[in-house]
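User: Predict structure, ligand adenosine-5'-triphosphate.
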Amino acid sequence: MLGNLFAGFYQFADVFAFLVLSAAGLAIIFGMMGVINMAHGEFVMCGVYVTAASYHAGLPLPLAQACGTAVAFLIGMVLEAVVIRPLYTRPLDSLLVTWGLSLVVTQGTLVLVGSTFPGIGTPLGGFRVGDYTFSAYRMVLFAAAIGVLGFVWFLFLRTRFGIQARAVMQNPGMAQALGVRRNRVYALSFGVGAGLAGFCGALYAPTMSLIPTMGSSFIVESFVTVVVGGSSVLLGTAPAAVALAVIRTGLNAWYGQIIGQIGLLVAVILIIRVLPDGFTGWLTRRTA
Amino acid sequence: MPPDPILEVAGLRAGYGGTQVLQGVDLSVGRGEIVALVGRNGVGKTTTMRCLIGLVRATAGSIRFAGEEMSRTAADARARRGIGYIPQGRDVFPRMTVQENLAVGELIGASRRQRRADLVYQYFPILAERRRQMAGTLSGGQQQQLAIGRALIGGPELILLDEPSEGVQPNVVQAIVRVLRSIRDDLGTTIVFVEQNLETILTLADRCCVMEKGKVVDAIPPGAVTSENVRRHLLL
Ligand SMILES: Nc1ncnc2c1ncn2[C@@H]1O[C@H](COP(=O)(O)OP(=O)(O)OP(=O)(O)O)[C@@H](O)[C@H]1O
Ligand SMILES: [Mg+2]
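Assistant: Predicted complex:
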């Protein structure tokens, strides 16, 4: 009984963590700058590969994961300044450029690194509840997802950078007229978005086989969560992840994986039919 | 020519897309002066203000602020250099609290920031009472006070203020005018403001500059800011 109950929670937590971790970076970049980052999956992959390479070079796993996150953050900052910044007034072009970039990175990785890369075994082993055994690392991922939400809350609501970032988001011209260095805010926001994508990759690195197209395995869930959530991480991504995880877990349990996947996409279509601005739009209307 | 000018604008041209709005604005403002920019609807008063802070690009002419050429400088750098801007319609950040709105402005050093915030709360006590309220839920007059306070945080030498009385109750306008005068008297801050409301102009302005079709065409010198002199420039 207890084992069954916990199994339900465990599956929910697993899906929730995956949705939050894979979508947070995408949501920040979309919410702050209106840029749809088609290279999001490649930032995740960057996190995975850098983590794996650092780990094989002898770093302990948590440090290797920090490296994966940091490299994605730095690449994001540079990319923003060089490629994305000239395209803020041209959202379709920025979509195209990031898509092109994702193709280049995927193929480049295939050429430079090869079609496989030695993976990392999942750490921490398992624990028992009732009659079942569960992976402890999955619980770490769940905690990390909660941690990411806490980090985003702290960064955007409790720091000066966050206040300036929200001001830029609400009225870029007015923020600039108050002395806010808009470009710096954009570069940092893009860096944070890319860094969170890298963090996602770093966390899932020990759970997956490493192939150059692995970025795409994060793409569907991350886009779906952002579409349902809307532009805000806290008012959008988080509730969307809860809702989608409940739907997915329920359908998986009763009808199996395939129906779970299809049901998730049907639910998404229904939700955006009812809430065109996602949860963000709905919640800000109710609280305003 | 005022003595010790803090702002000298010459031959300023600007517009939107293909249409020229400013056709060569000339304007000179002395340190510590309060100057009203008056003129009928659509003559380019707001465009002038936006051009001075740098939100509209100058296509020709010069803007010298405290002796420094600014017409090519980015808006954020002008603000940090000491120009405060309060737009027409106020543009407070609606989904941020009063306190957060005040914290947006760039200023180095946390202790100085707190002292500036205290000063703002002293000038506008209503903001202190409502510091945790979302700015979007404030009344027009409260938003105007917040917008002025927000510009004061950076410690500006020059304040650009576009139609402070628009959509604000008359008694609140009077209170705002009193505060603006004491800001000038206490801090020596120069104020250039656009205004259509006769009462506000008469009680606040030292002198007026009159705009017509994208140019400053006339001036009302100190001592001559009377109701009949001003009124004929305000007809809509
Ligand atoms: N964003 C814009 N794009 C295109 N044209 C604009 C824009 N803003 C203003 N204009 C035009 O520029 C001219 C001057 O406008 P401006 O807002 O500077 O006038 P104003 O003197 O401030 O008027 P008001 O008294 O109504 O505030 C007007 O003809 C207006 O239609
Ligand atoms: Mg105007």
